[in-house]
Amino acid sequence: MQIKKLRIENIPDWLEFFDAKAFKDHQEWETCYCTYYFQPKPEEYKNIHSRKRNYAVWLIEKGIMQGYLAYEDNKVIGWCNSNSKRSFPRLNTISDTQEETIKSIVCFIVEKEYRNRGIASALVQEVIKDAKKRRI
Fold first, then answer.
1. What are the C-alpha distances in Å from 11 to residues 56, 58, 65, 93, 128?
2. pLDDT tens digit string along 102-123?
3. What does the DSSP assignment read for 41-90?
4. Which range of residues forms the domain containing residue 94?
5. Does the pTM of the predicted model rise above 0.85?
6. What are the residues facing 4 on neighbouring strands?
7. pLDDT on residue 116
8. How many distinct structural domains can be found in the chain?
9. 3 - beta bridge partners?
10. Is 129 helix (H, G, I), strand (E, B) or coil?
11. How far apart are CA 19 and CA 28, in angstroms?
12. Across the strands, what pairs with 107?
């Protein structure tokens, strides 16, 4: 297994995971595209497009949605949405002067066939390692 930081270059991998594999056993979540915590939408995005999939791509392209992808055999098998707390509008209900230094994890998903293999733990360790390096 390999863990990679979400970047513009791996948007196609991320989309393939969300479009076809992530929610095979939880179809009620299949249209989320990990955008729930990015509501309300920023002014610069409003009225561009209403589909969550397109909004997610825009968030990734702008560097707003960040996280880590777990790969096996060059295919995404897991995802962790993580960034500074301030990046998630739904988490910012109280003014907190330390929001920039709080690293938040708002979503995990591991493809059903790969669960119980330590993938989520490996993703958390990557979040911690990166947070220490960046002091977030």
1. 10, 10, 11, 30, 23
2. 889 999 999 999 999 999 999 9
3. PPTTTTTS---HHHHHHHHHHTT-S-EEEEEETTEEEEEEEEEEGGG-GG
4. 2-134
5. yes
6. 69
7. 96
8. 1
9. 70
10. helix
11. 13
12. 81
pLDDT on residue 93: 66
Type of residue at 114: Y
Q: Is 5 helix (H, G, I), strand (E, B) or coil?
A: strand
Residue 28 in contact with residue 87, Cβ under 8 Å? no
Residues 93-98: what's their mean pLDDT? 62
Distances (CA, A) of 129 to 18, 89, 123: 25, 24, 10
- Phi, psi for 104 (deg, rounded to 5): -115, 145
For position 75, which CATH number holds? 3.40.630.30
**Does 98 have pLDDT greater than 70?**
no
Each residue of 30-65: b (16+ CB within 10 Å) or e? eebbbbebbeebeeebeeeeeebeebbbbbbeeeeb
